[in-house]
Write a structure and sequence with these properties.
It holds the Pfam family Fer2. By secondary structure, the protein is α+β, with helices and mostly antiparallel strands. The chain contains six helices and five strands; from the N terminus they run ββαββαβαααα. It starts with a strand and ends in a 10-residue tail after the last helix.
Length: 181
């Protein structure tokens, strides 16, 4: 007997996708096998390690705990492949991970990147203890976490610099004659 299949629509990294999946297909498996987005890694399949973390409507979730048919009810899914800007400019967290040498084998990295991107968005000026607490739910067997914590802090710094530069550009916009914008 074959399992009933469901046609679903998922908006992933700004692109609309369709897939035909069994009711019990996990979002992590759908992303990897049905959509070919292999950046989301699957470690424990129990929601413990965090390697499969993606953003569901902007919030970090363990994609190994979400059914693909349930994810179809949400507006947007962001995977590690969707963090960079459309022109390929790395997201601040991607830049920070490189600068801070925050990865070794790289298996856990996609989950950390998506988690930290959301964390810094919501907490733009974390302290070291805050950064350490933010990443405690994701497991890394290689780094010892210090460089990951440094990357959280550097991500926040880069983001503040970019936000400041954007504000300066807006403030420096040319004014029409008479001093009015």
């Amino acid at each position: 007997m074959t399992e009933e299949q469901h046609d679903i629509r998922l908006r992933v990294n700004g692109i609309q996708h369709t897939a035909r999946v069994p009711a019990r297909r996990l979002l992590s498996d759908c992303l990897r096998h049905d959509l070919g987005l292999t950046g989301t890694h699957v470690g424990c399949e129990h929601g413990v390690c965090g390697a499969c973390t993606v953003l569901l409507d902007g919030q970090p979730v363990r994609s190994c705990l979400v059914l693909a048919v349930s994810a179809a009810q949400h507006d947007d899914i962001t995977t590690v492949e969707g963090l960079a800007a459309p022109d390929g400019t790395p997201h601040p967290v991607q830049q920070a991970f490189g600068e801070c040498h925050a990865l070794q084998c790289g298996f856990c990295t996609p989950g950390f990147l998506t988690l930290i991107a959301a964390y810094v968005r919501d907490h733009p000026d974390p302290g070291e203890d805050d950064a350490r607490e933010a990443v405690t739910g994701n497991l890394c067997r290689c780094t010892g976490y210090q460089n990951i914590v440094n990357a959280v802090l550097r991500t926040a710094e880069i983001t503040r610099e970019q936000d400041g530069a954007a504000s300066d550009t807006t403030a420096a916009a040319p004014r029409a004659e008479g001093g009015r914008p």
